[in-house]
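Aim 2, interim progress: modelling of the coproporphyrinogen III-bound target.
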Amino acid sequence: MPGKALLDVLQNRRPERRPVWFMRQAGRYLPEYREIRGRAGSFLELCYNPELASEVTLQPLRRFDLDAAILFADILVVPHAMGVGLRFAEGEGPVLEKVGDSARVRALRPVRASQEAEAVCRTVSLVRQALPDKVALIGFCGAPWTVASYMIEGGSSEERLQARLAAYQRPPWFVDLMDRLIEASCDYLVAQVEAGAEVLQIFDSWAGDLTGPVFDETVVEPIRLIRAELERRCGKVPVIVFARGAGSKHARVAAAVGAEAVGVEQAIELDWVLPDLPERCAIQGNLDPTALLADGGRLEALTQAVLRQAPMERHIFNLGHGVKPSTDPAALSRVMETVRQWDKGNNGQSLSVA
Ligand code: CP3
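Predicted structure of the complex, ligand included:
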């Protein structure tokens, strides 16, 4: 019986087909999401309502023949569970209580046994129970650097100057904050695995902010520590690292962390990264989400331009970043069709069985 294509690629088996999923596959571009989100009251209430959050996780699978479900939650659940005030203001994104000195860092609580983590894990187990056999369940967290940057800035910020300065300067409170986030991320991911997550993705959306040795100590080392601790506590659960903007440093991240796959932003050609990756590491990405707004023929060509760059057995088809709210769901269907057609085609990367 064929296995789950996503797990096959992550564990170096030949998949039955090229695995496909989309970052932000559950979200505002789907009318059925907007309906449930309205019913939940707010985005955060939706995240902490296991029945509704599991429903929203499953919605895209009803429309598209996807190979993975990604837990519906947010990377900012971790600071929230640590006691940092958080709200999502309509139209302006997340607003957090700022954490930028040692008193604030000392006041952070462990994520373990928090109500927030408990609710999210309940969602994981509900989704896992409802999932078709061939679909893998992805759990996730934000990487310490990206989560720290939201905590330091108190929300979204164009340049993240305070956060980047803290990383370059590295005062004791910043080191402590990163240590607390490493520990919290481990506990949170272990709990997700125990609840039924089969793959973990670590989102470092702002990895591209840092350079040189500060990139290594602030982006790479915390993710390496999380991965090592995860392995100690729950064995080899496949990990996808999405260090967005890492550019020329993706291969370094992959090797240092021992990731089963690296996600790559759309600015980087997959076939430029692939030869430098460790042999057992797959690549995920990287169609530009803006291409989904283009007309059908152009979208198809842009999708094929990604497919051409990576063989099925080492590739997880995805976007270079999340689906944009203005996307027509039909565009995702079109992309899926293009991927399936490509793998059936006579391009030498197709199925060998008749
Ligand atoms: O479908 C999925 O991908 C799973 C759920 C998921 C969400 N956020 C739901 C969400 C995941 C994996 C995330 C990760 C996340 N959250 C990241 C890393 C990926 C990336 O986008 O770079 C980051 C940086 C966040 C923080 C965050 N959450 C911001 C800055 C915002 C506001 C901007 C925006 O897109 O609205 C969010 C809100 C958010 N997270 C929404 C969703 C569906 C929109 C909420 C709504 O319904 O209004």
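The radius of gyration is 19 Å. Residues 350-354 have pLDDT under 50 and may be disordered.
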